[in-house]
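Q: Fold this one first, please.
A: Sequence and structure below.
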Amino acid sequence: MKKYFFNTSIIFIALTLSCSTTNQRFGINNNESGSPLISNVNITLGVPADKDSTDDYIIIRSQYVLSYNPNRNVANWVSWNLNSSWYGDVPRYSGNFITDTSLPDSFNKVKHSDYTNSGYDRGHMVRSEERTKTVEDNKSTFLLTNILPQRPDLNRGVWLNLENYCEELCKKENKELFVIAGGIFHTGNKIKDLVAVPDSFFKIVVMLNRGESLRSITDSTKIIAVVMPNKNGIRNDPWWNYLTTIRRIENSTGYDFLSHVKREIQEIVEKTLFVYNKK
């Protein structure tokens, strides 16, 4: 796993491909958009960035990439690749959710018990089922840096239904997906004055055919973009009720997504509301 801590002058990196951590310092080249160039399939679309890089601690694992916010004690966003090869027969990890001890000593480290009796589920961004090829892959999804607080009806209902649809795309239609998900924060609510609670959640899914990558994205590439409220009472809602545009998500979060996609293509696909209906 690599971790990049962004500020105006330097990027700090720690490399961990399993659970061990080593700390190093590197210089990183930027692409034309100013986004750091990181060689990892899970960040193919680019590293989402906003105007304040001081609360973006970038963690790079072989299973996913995320930006951790030390003020909110949750991820700003998580980015990952998904195709049928990531699914396997490994059983779901059965222990407690895992404190990410690889975070810097100055950061709060969220524990499993911090969510207990809070009324919120420990909501995976990268779903456990989406990393079942190896034991290590599956266990990585239970690190609490991959978890945000979700109301049960969101986590176990409409959000799960979209996750299931992504699984169908991979297994039945042989699709190559590039996914980014995270929370949208407006109220400042926290669990135990520690774990920030999103008011809503976003998810962006760029849909390609298996084996295709960045160069295959065109202005007609299909994209799912949703914003779902973090509340109960929506368990049975169709996920497509919450379709939106990437541009709206950018305006709500302050992050620039798809920064590695050609600018002229971004301008089209980020404003397009793609329509899906599973009925």
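Q: Good. Now the second chain.
A: Here it is, same layout.
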Amino acid sequence: MNFVFFTNTPAHVHLYKHAVSRLRAAGHRVRILARDYGCTLALLDRYDLPYHSYGACGTTKRSLLRNLPGHYARIIPTVRRFDPDLIVGMGAYAAHSGAISRTPTILLLDSEPTSLDHLVSQPFAKAILTPEAFRKELGKNHYRFAGYKECAYLHPDVFTPDPAVRNALEVDRDEPFAVLRFNAFGSHHDVNHSGFSHRERLDLIEYLGHRLTVFVSDEGGHIDLEGTRGEPFDVHPALLHDALAEARLLVADSQTVVTEAGLLGTPAIRSNSFVGENDMGNFIELERAGLIHNVATFEEVIELTDELLADEQRVEQLQQRRCAYLADKVNLTELIVAVAEQGGNVERIPQLSTAPRERFDPTVIEG
């Protein structure tokens, strides 16, 4: 069979990398259509995956809109020439190329705020797959699985952290370090949302820098670390998850990396304007499980960093919680492979359910 996968961001590369390798090893033909965004192409090269870049995009909404027509102009003929049996992706590119080429399309979604993307994609999908924690209903072809998209690459069945990442970071075996991840807030679903201010980012680097080594990953590239207590996270981006697994703390105003830290058992603080009663389901559920912390203000972030760093038992406790939490979560790579080999006939996959999400009280946080 022929399959097309869309990787529009670095996170999508991680999401599909093992499934693509598994399908190719089984004799299927696979083509990845990739957007040149952030380190997406660098990751594809690192994992030696077959891809065709349909164009570039910066970290601003204006860049996306400006490049959109050219992206479609390259995507559609490429898909037609490859003649896939199934397309897999996360949004409009996959859905629209499937509609035009008359190819069944599976969308794997996990972000409730991307309402515009849902609106223009949903009508063209054979099926939509989301985590159980997803807080929206997307119609009769909406199926849920136990876990998160990050379970495709951080489930214990597919990921074992490599402590040798400390050599790449040039930190000693027992040297504590923190990772700070700052979002560019340039995506269409980030409209009217924000994270730390520039001043708060610098203050956070300075505050934590007195306590431990601080590595900074700044998506927007706006922070000059010269003269600060922070160091750039400048090792290959493929080493990020190994680094997160070794980190003493993650603080971020972005999204995916917080879920990743939670699933790795690393103390994690997330703070941005999404936090609150209308927050995304995965962050509410992970906080209920005691795996991450969502806070709305910078003052709360500082207070919580002190608490987490002072608790010497925190890491061991989180590892125990992580193991218990992931015990009944799917290995999403296996699920994606099964869906592909069934030609997108998801009703044949027992790990998928059309049942509405379980209602839970987001104010109940398990310690």
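Q: Anything worth noting on the second one?
A: Residues 37 and 57 are 5 Å apart (CA to CA).
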